[in-house]
Amino acid sequence: MSELSHPRVTGSIPGPRSRVLLERQAERESNARTYPRRLPIAIGRAQGSYIEDVDGNVFIDFLTGAGVLALGHNHPEVVEAVERQLRILCHGLDFPTELKDEFVSLQLSLLPEGMRNEMKIQFCGPAGANAVDAALKLCKTATGRGEVAAFHGAFHGSTHSAMAVTGLVSQKAPVANYMHGVHFFPYPYPYRSALPLTNGTSAGEACLHYFESVLTDPNGGVPLPAAVIMEIVQAEGGVVPGPTDFVRGVRRVTEELDVPLIVDEIQTGCGRTGTWYAFEQHGIIPDVILASKALGGIGMPIAVVFYNKKLDTWAPGAHTATFRGNHLAFAAGIAAAKIIERDRILENVSEQSAYALGRLGKLEQSCDCIGEVRGVGLMLGVEIIDHATGLQDGERALAIQRGALERGLIVELGGRDDCVVRFLPPLNVTRETLDQALDILEESVVSVAGAPRLAVV
Question: Both 167 and 302 in a single domain?
Fold first, then answer.
């Protein structure tokens, strides 16, 4: 089997064989399906940073299973670890095993040193949304309170409770009687601040002031919550990094009020932002950490909740899930974490991030349709705007995504009106592949934007 190393699109998208499978899918699968609507391909195989569809077209995959594939598709050492485990034990519920013990020890060792002996780990259902649900239940049980504070622009999942703490209104609108008691606060979005900024006040300072004022005001209308749930970088919300003054301020306020702080690291964890968890970059210690996605090495399903021992008020069986003992995920996760450390992958994340942001910054200066380039590590976003009004331009972002696909690059959209073109490369992406992808993106942006500005020297 030949290696996949370069994008190659030789026909229309979708090709004839993909079209047949897409049509069969539309006939038989739920209308809730999403990705094949805007990325109409049927996958044949994948390797590293590349996907080949059933028609022989090859694409650079900068969606990576929605951030699941930290080392790209089918990393041979991780595959080998899973194959070995297949012959030993696949499913173990919550019985202890030597492999599970190794996984737990490794995951705790990857926390900041001061947290390692203070945290417990819980295995829940194998999806990030179930970790959200478990964390909310845990904090409500431990505090005896029922309200939850979340943030505008947040995305925490599509299950009943995860949807309730998600900012996306359209997702909730069709569903009556979703979980109540959730209060939303502004999240710093400097490019489009939701709060007025005066006298040099930053977006982080303004949002923190509002957050603290409401929670400490006896007439603020919000009872003391059982938890505050926050993304350090809003991922689906448009790659919006929380500034340090805001992140540290939220931690200070929650500590002073004795409110558990949940940080959702489902997409940012496992090195995506250049540190194992994004919260480390702000010097805070949260009470609860949610991890999933890349935790399973090569897409093996797993989700966990780390939480401070003081919150461990669960009764036996208080939160269970049949598939919480996935030993294939444990094996893959151990192998991937060791490879990331051995091969100094986090250094690659930082190096390739700086390079990509530099190139995207030059593109921003030359194209009127780019409002802002932003990101942390290898979670990058390009906000597309109508240059005449400055408003989000989701239609143009969609056209850029489609143009990229037709040239051999798979990227995701996010943010308000899906106006942000998102990059989620494998963490071990090479400079060669990154250049291929950035070349394609530039071509796609220019083809949609029309004539660029004068070249920036």
Answer: yes
| Adjacent-strand bridge partners of 59 | 51
344: left (phi over 0), alpha (psi -120 to 50) or beta: left
Rounded to whole angstroms, how far apart are CA atoms 287 and 417? 33
Q: Are residues 334 and 362 in the same domain?
A: no
Tokens (6 digits) for 161: 């409770």
Q: Which residues contact residue 191 at a Cβ distance below 8 angstroms, ignoring those fewer than 6 apart?
A: 371, 372, 374, 383
The domain that holds 217 is classified in CATH as: 3.40.640.10
Same-domain check for residues 322 and 350:
no
Specify the DSSP element, H or E, that contains 414. Answer: strand 412-414
Query: Are 323 and 366 members of one domain?
Result: no
Say if residue 262 is in the same domain as residue 316.
yes
> How many Cβ atoms are within 10 Å of 386's Cβ, its own excluded?
16
Question: What is the DSSP code (8-state) at residue 385?
Answer: B
Q: Tens-of-pLDDT digits for all 457 residues of the chain? A: 578 889 999 989 999 999 999 999 999 999 999 999 999 999 999 999 999 999 999 999 999 999 999 999 999 999 999 999 999 999 999 999 999 999 999 999 999 999 999 999 999 999 999 999 999 999 999 999 999 999 999 999 999 999 999 999 988 889 988 889 999 999 999 898 878 787 888 999 999 999 999 999 999 999 999 999 999 999 999 999 999 999 999 999 999 999 999 999 999 999 999 999 999 999 999 999 999 999 999 999 999 999 999 999 999 999 999 999 899 999 999 999 999 999 999 999 999 999 999 999 999 999 999 999 999 999 999 999 998 999 999 999 999 999 999 999 999 999 999 999 999 999 999 999 999 999 999 999 999 886 444 333 2
Q: Where in the sequence is the domain holding 380, given as residue range(s)? A: 344-421+428-451
Per 3-state DSSP, the chain is made up of helix, strand and coil in percentages (nearest 5) of 40, 15, 40
Q: Are both 126 and 140 inside the same structural domain? A: yes
Give yes or no: residues 244 and 368 share one domain.
no
Write the burial class of residue 362 (CB in 10 Å: 0-12 exposed, 13-18 middle, 19+ buried).
middle
Total structural domains within the chain: 2
Q: Which long-range contacts (CB under 8 A, 24 or more apart) does 16-21 make?
A: 16/55, 17/42, 17/53, 17/54, 17/55, 18/42, 18/53, 18/54, 18/55, 21/54
Q: Give which of 190, 183, 177 is closest to 211, Cα–Cα.
A: 183
